[in-house]
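Sequence, please.
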C-alpha cells in the first residue's frame, strides 16, 4: 500500500503540456534541473545541435526523401538524419545504434523521439538510410 502522504512531485515535474520530455529543443532545461547532472554525451549532443545547420541540410534532403503514401510510412527525415549523425559520432553499428536509442535518454532526446509516443528506428531502418543517402548524394549532391 502506498502512503498517501508521499509527495511524488519530485518524480513528475510540472511541465507545460506542449513540452515534450525527450524533445531536443523543448523541455531540456526543466529535465536538467530534475536530473541534476549533465553527462558528457548530453553536453556533446547539445553542442552538435547548436552548431550543425539542420534546416539547410534538411532542405537539401527533403526533395529526395521518401514521401508518405498508402504503404509503410517512412521514419521522420530529421530523426533519421540525427540518428545517422549519432551513429557516426559514436562509432555504432546498426544494431548498436538501435540499442543506444532505447538505452540512452540523451540520444532519444537528440533524435527527437519519445520512447512511448514515437517509433524508434530499428536496425533495418537505420541500415536503409545510408544507402538511400549515398544514392541521393550521387544523383544531386544533397548528402
Amino acid at each position: 500500500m502506498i502512503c498517501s502522504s508521499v509527495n511524488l512531485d519530485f518524480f513528475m515535474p510540472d511541465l507545460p503540456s506542449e513540452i515534450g520530455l525527450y524533445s531536443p529543443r523543448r523541455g531540456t532545461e526543466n529535465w536538467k534541473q530534475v536530473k541534476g547532472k549533465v553527462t558528457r554525451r548530453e553536453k556533446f549532443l547539445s553542442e552538435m545541435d547548436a552548431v550543425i545547420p539542420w534546416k539547410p541540410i534538411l532542405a537539401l534532403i527533403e526533395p529526395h526523401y521518401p514521401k508518405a503514401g498508402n504503404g509503410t510510412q517512412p521514419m521522420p527525415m530529421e530523426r533519421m538524419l540525427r540518428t545517422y549523425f549519432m551513429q557516426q559520432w559514436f562509432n555504432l553499428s546498426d544494431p548498436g545504434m538501435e540499442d543506444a536509442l532505447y538505452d540512452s535518454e540523451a540520444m532519444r532526446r537528440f533524435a527527437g523521439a519519445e520512447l512511448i509516443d514515437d517509433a524508434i528506428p530499428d536496425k533495418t531502418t537505420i541500415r536503409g538510410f545510408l544507402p538511400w543517402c549515398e544514392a541521393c548524394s550521387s544523383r544531386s549532391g544533397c548528402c
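Residues 123-140 form the longest helix (18 residues).
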